[in-house]
Amino acid sequence: MTQCECRAGFFSLRDCENMALAQCVECARWICALHSAPEAVMSTCRDCQARRDQGTGTTGDRDTYDDGWAHSYRERYYGSGYTPMYSGSHHHHYDNQDAQSFAPRDGEMEDGSDDPQAGFGDS
Amino acid sequence: MFAAFRALQQLSNTQREAIESKQVSGAYPPSLLLDNLRALSEFDRLADKWRRTATIAAPILAVAAVFTLMISLHTTTYLLPLPIALLVAAVVIAVSFFRLRPLDISNNVRGVALPFLAILKQDIAATDRVRVRLDLALPTDKRKQVEVLPAYVRGQYHKVIDTLFADPWFEGSARLADGTVLRWRVRDDVRESKRTKRNRRGKYKTKTRHYKRSEIAVVVSLPSKRYVVHDVAGSAGQRVTVRRDVKRCTIKLQRKLKLKSLEPIDPRFLIDAISAAYRSATPVGSAA
Q: What ipTM did this prediction achieve?
């Protein structure tokens, strides 16, 4: 069994201690029942769900203030400038900053080449 | 109406006791405390909604009952069941209003305590407990009255009576998963100003205004073996004191807010105070 790769906490983050049950279809992290978004049809972690909520402008269930709302609030709060400390060991979750390395630069093709007409022989 | 009474019936004995005594006090697992507060908040939300409807519906139905009674007496008695039905409906609504009114709880519960504790739960281990003392009574409850000031004249108002209320409604403590000990306290001081004037037609009109001063105090005690605390930068209007000893660095942040209504404060003020303490710390062994 794999351990859940999500980070628990709000003011300071730590590794989740639960065992994973599924893999998030968006970020590919292993997630436990507590960190999977209950309203998602496919397995999605609460962080990805919160990011999606932020994109669509929804805020989770404000009437119940459940864990889904707390994750959504956490995502927005971190977006406003707070960077929590992390005391765990799961460092292989790629954030947006990591993903930027793979985004094509201006004038660059998806495969990394810079000349669309160039063949394999061109240097 | 049915939704509010159904929510009341669904409350457990503990929740009913809390709503009747207007107190939640003790050490609870965070999930249990949140479940209890969610149930109380949901009941209060439905009861508030119903009471707002009832204050409009009951007088309208009563007037309609009198009006249709007059018509039926002057035309045909076959119409008589209509005013009776309207009167019965008005009475039922009025009775439900007066039954729910004593069970009204402060909006601070669902506006501040519930979201704050839902956030705090994320940082508390499931096996740990959070200690709270939560006063559910309204900020202008008789028991919270401190003083009634002598009446005075102000502009067009020939009689102004100010009543002062002290409401230390929320305090608690918790040990967070990283070893930090957190304590918090929210105290509201309310001034209720009842202003009476006489209009041009000779009628007396009274307006009630509320002014609130909220004092938020947060004490964050960070373990020295885990965190190195640097200068604490509080936000504008925040008073910060730092006390260091061998085991812990204790940061106290206080802030006063002024509001011109009884609306709950934004729970973000509490969250910001705690995060201000964390912002000043770095993990032991990392570069500052």
A: 0.84
